[in-house]
Amino acid sequence: QRIAELQHCIGDFERISDHALNIAQAVNKMQAKEMAFSSKASKELEVFSSAVTDIMDLTTKVFVEEDKTMAKCVEPLEEVIDKLNKEVKKRHVKRLRKGKCSVDMGFILADLSTDFERIADHCSNIAICIIQEGQEDIEAHEYLESLDKGEDTQFRESYLAYNEKYVLP
Length: 169
Known about the structure:
Layout: H1 2-32, H2 39-65, H3 68-71, H4 74-97, H5 103-132, H6 140-148, H7 153-165
Helix pairs in contact: 1-5, 2-4, 2-5, 4-5, 4-7
């Protein structure tokens, strides 16, 4: 069972690296074509990427230390990242309608946002795997459903703290 858990986590880390490569390629494309985001979009992406960096750091530490308590801090941050993803895309559409951003930059922004959000999803998978380790009675879907129902006060407190930390300008 331990080997299966490790393989699952390794698969998630591999997918994270695929998304990181996508991000690097997008940045290289922007540099090669001398493209840049608007200052507002850049500031939003700074907040967004900071949250993604933090979830990656947290998840790596959770995995290395096999810390189930710390693992429970990943899902609230993943939820905040989901919220950031939706808001960044919504704000882009507003800028596009006002002519403050181009369609080409919109495609790049959408791709970056999707990669950021998927990295967070894979971090969540890894954390849930650590939480489930050695506990056959915990199912991932049941765990996530209990969080959706607000049955976990630690989740709610962490979510609110992350929500305050990662506020878009």
